[in-house]
Amino acid sequence: MKNRYQYFLLILLGIIAATVPALSAGMSKEDKKSHDIEGKFNASEFIMEHVSDSHEWHILTKKDGTSVAVYLPVIIYDRQSGIHIFSSEKIAHGHSYMGYAIAHEGDYAGKIIRVDHEGHYDGSKPPLDFSITKAVFGMLIASLILLWLMISMARSYRKSGISAPKGLLQGILEPVILFIRDDIAIPNIGDHKYSKFMPYLLTVFFFVLINNLLGLIPIFPFGANVTGNVNVTFVLALCTFLITQFSANRSHWRHVFAAPGVPLWLLPIMIPIELIGLISKPFALMIRLFANITAGHIIVLSLVALIFIFQSVLVAPVSIFFVLFMDCIELLVAFLQAYVFTLLSALFIGMATAEAEHH
Known about the structure:
mainly alpha, 2 domains, three-stranded antiparallel β-sheet, two-stranded antiparallel sheet, 10 helices
């Protein structure tokens, strides 16, 4: 029993050791924008700057006020001058380079725009941006981790054959894979069709889960909010929508355009409703994942912001305690949202591929 308590204490101290430096590291140059002219802390700007995507990956702030960051590559295409590739360091902190800068206000806030010699927006349309932003970089890391896990597991099975799990990796992943197959894919899609969709369901589950976990390690100050980015969840929901529609059978489309038992005069009303239903399902997938992950990040950052709002050392221990508590809840949410997204994807696919009942 003593060993268990010692392990628990070491884990707790490790979490605190990872969190406290982040809280006491100070604010970067970007965070200083969260103060107005009078020097008053602006919590909303502070939170949104950390939740939103950016062209650099801020790591820490030194005592002298300089920040250490990973500046990501900027890749833009301008119809007037072609393709440009350079480091985001050249346009960071309000600088401009080759006539381009990052807008900090207006309709194009956060995007790369064309500027004149004085650094003012010239009114033209922004160039097409294919840059490796923090969200894209986070997805690449998650993809590499996913490839490493699955390739390592495949090699292990290739050597030992199909047998009882051996090692920590198989012991953790195999029960999860079997759970997705036996409790998600088979009940919702069916015994004869589930294997066709298992690669997608496994990929989307582990991809969402890994990105959720990476957003918590640590969530502050430089975690990538990948699944809290609506563009990412939109693409994931779009993949589910396309797979569902291209896999749908005649019974599914007959139910959409000629529902059995519905009078002919009622079809002009029912068909638009059914089409809206097809779109609302992936839309709900997109919003659910985006909203839950973003809400958790905002709550944690709000608790951190209390330290700067009250400017009191007495608030710091209370804030850190609730941050750790919310991190534990966010850990549960990370697994739960990956499960829900995979479950609903399997449910939608199963509904589109189900055969009509004959009486």
